[in-house]
Automatic annotation (TrEMBL):
It comes from Lipotes vexillifer. Keywords: Cell membrane, Disulfide bond, G-protein coupled receptor, Glycoprotein, Membrane, Receptor, Signal, Transducer, Transmembrane, Transmembrane helix. PANTHER family: PDF RECEPTOR-LIKE PROTEIN-RELATED, VASOACTIVE INTESTINAL POLYPEPTIDE RECEPTOR 1. GO terms for molecular function: G protein-coupled peptide receptor activity; peptide hormone binding; vasoactive intestinal polypeptide receptor activity. This is Vasoactive intestinal polypeptide receptor 1 isoform X3. Pfam families: 7tm_2, HRM. It comes from the Eukaryota. The lineage of its organism: Eukaryota, Metazoa, Chordata, Craniata, Vertebrata. Its main location: membrane. Belongs to the G-protein coupled receptor 2 family. One of its GO terms (cellular component) is plasma membrane. It is a multi-pass membrane protein. The gene is VIPR1. It is found in: Cell membrane. Residues 1-61, 78-328 form the G-protein coupled receptors family 2 profile domain.
Length: 393
């Protein structure tokens, strides 16, 4: 029997089965080495002894944790929360990706990287829905039996999409740091390296994990994380979070140095407000908030961490799409230009091919699209590129 946390083996009637607490409670409970038990009777398995998992495994010694019915309601609420978050993110990301891909004036390396990040968020949301459908709606949540190929494929797709999403967050950090730290570099050559990091590296780790699971742990639906094999997936993700956090700190230091320049001090806005604004804009783009989850104390409330990781994390794609597409000045200018053009065509029958030569170039241009052949002043390049990245709203 599978009770959503532990697999209870087939047992003759009248016997008691004692098992160690699930690994998830060992991570968060300050008390280690506890066990749970059930008795096999004519009417089936008895309730968990000495109580619900949080109580029995030391997560809540005061018996104030949620009982099993409340836990079911809590998990259902969490599932509803991240379903809403991923659905909202999916809708906004699809529109944002379409906007960046359809308007030529928005085509540049920076926006290409944004598009790949958007696609990784889209794939992650889609993979979550597919995994939930395979695990819960198809009745394959019984980890005691051998899962179907389709269920395992859904979990493999989910692991790949999650890791790819983290690595594209890393690519965003690498690109912006390279833009600021290196005076001249070939964006086109670096772009293919970013493609490899964002899509190639996660596929390598996912393939290795899949092959090892086939040979050593081919049971259930591969959604358990209780063995050391899970580190094949977890370690690269943690490494990307750590590297991106370091890049974030370095970029903030560069930003502070730039804001201390004499010409910046003449701006109407306060340097400190600009720093705070830029920092807040970079946090969702780099996924800096994940560093907080990585260093949560072991005895922290599991329910709180679950809400932050699953529910709050599901809205990250929505926030990124809003900040880096819909509130982007270049995007808004291009949309306004297109709207005026369509409006004139519909109302006045205006033909765009008879427009003044300068009218077609009055819209927004992608400020980071720097020619590979024409030398550009390092100061001008850094100023325009960084301003386009952090001055979006």
């Amino acid at each position: 029997m599978w009770d959503n946390l532990t697999c209870w083996p087939a047992t003759p009637r009248g016997q008691v089965v004692v098992l160690a607490c699930p690994l998830i409670f060992k991570l968060f409970s300050p008390i280690q080495g506890r066990n749970v038990s059930r008795s096999c009777t004519d009417k089936g398995w008895t309730p968990l002894e000495p109580g619900p998992y949080p109580v029995a495994c030391g997560l809540d010694d005061n018996s104030s944790s949620l009982d099993e019915q409340q836990q079911t309601m809590f998990y259902s609420s969490v599932k509803t929360g991240y379903t809403v978050g991923y659905s909202l993110s999916l809708a906004t990301l699809l529109v944002a990706t379409a906007i960046l891909s359809l308007f030529r004036k928005l085509h540049c390396t920076r926006n290409y990287i944004h598009m790949h990040l958007f696609i990784s968020f889209i794939l992650r949301a889609t993979a979550v829905f597919i995994k939930d459908l395979a695990l819960f709606d198809s009745g394959e949540s019984d980890h005691c039996s051998k899962g179907s190929v389709g269920c395992k494929a859904a979990v493999v797709l989910f692991q790949y999409c999650v890791m790819a999403n983290f690595f594209w967050l890393l690519v965003e950090g690498l690109y912006l740091h390279t833009l600021l730290a290196i005076s001249f570099f070939s964006e086109r050559k670096y772009f293919w390296g970013y493609i490899f990091i964002g899509w190639g590296v996660p596929s390598t780790f996912t393939m290795v994990w899949t092959i090892i699971r086939i040979h050593f742990e081919d049971y259930g639906c591969w959604d358990t994380i209780i063995s050391s094999l899970w580190w094949i997936i977890k370690a690269p993700i943690l490494a990307s979070i750590l590297v991106n956090f370091i890049l974030f700190i370095r970029i903030i230091r560069i930003l502070v140095h730039k804001l201390r320049a004499p010409d910046v001090g003449k701006s109407d806005s306060s340097p400190y407000s600009r720093l705070a604004k830029s920092t807040l804009l970079l946090i969702p783009l780099f996924g800096v908030h994940y560093i907080t989850f990585a260093f949560f104390p072991d005895n922290f409330k599991a329910e709180v961490k679950m809400v932050f990781e699953l529910v709050v994390g599901s809205f990250q794609g929505f926030v990124v799409a809003i900040l880096y597409c819909f509130l982007n000045g270049e995007v808004q200018a291009e949309l306004r230009r297109k709207w005026r053009r369509w409006h004139l065509q519909g109302v006045l029958g205006w033909n765009p091919k008879y427009q003044h030569p300068s009218a077609g170039s009055s819209g927004a241009t992608c400020s980071t699209q720097v020619s590979m052949l024409t030398p550009v002043s390092p100061g001008a390049r850094r100023s325009s590129s960084f301003q386009a990245e952090v001055s979006l709203v």
